[in-house]
Amino acid sequence: MESRMEQLLDELKRKIIATLNLIDVTPSQIDPDAPLVGGPLGIDSIDVLELVMMLEKDYGVSIDNREEGARILASLRSLAGFIRSAHAGQAG
């Protein structure tokens, strides 16, 4: 179970780097527990919109409002947890 979470975290790291063109960042440099927005990656509100579009396209999940987005995008780990719980809900 844990390995699936780690796989998802690694996948999200690569997608975030590609989506936001973070050319000087490698997946190993992204701390899954560090703040995503306003954290060491320098993600701003425009980047958040790009991430939300990528999440909808690639994972079929949507973020409906700013408060929900702030909670979901608090860290990479919280984002991965949101995707997993959304997919678990769809499977059942």
Tally of contiguous helical segments: 4
How big a fraction of the residues is strand?
A: under 5%
| Rg on CA atoms, Å | 12 Å
Average of the residue pLDDT scores: 93
- Counted beta strands: 0
- The level of helicity is 55-70%
CATH-level-2 architecture: Orthogonal Bundle
Q: Going by CATH, what is the homologous superfamily? A: ACP-like
Here the CATH topology equals Non-ribosomal Peptide Synthetase Peptidyl Carrier Protein, Chain A
Order of helices and strands: HHHH
Using the coordinates above, name the CATH class: Mainly Alpha
Number of domains: 1
Low-confidence stretches: none
Helix/sheet category: mainly alpha
Sheet of most strands: none
Q: Which descriptor suits the 3D outline?
A: globular
How would you describe this structure to a colleague?
The chain has one domain: ACP-like (Non-ribosomal Peptide Synthetase Peptidyl Carrier Protein, Chain A, Orthogonal Bundle), CATH 1.10.1200. The chain is built from four helices and no strands. By secondary structure, it is mostly helical. The longest helix has 18 residues, at 2-19. The two termini are 17 Å apart. Helix 1 packs across helix 4 (76-91). It is globular.
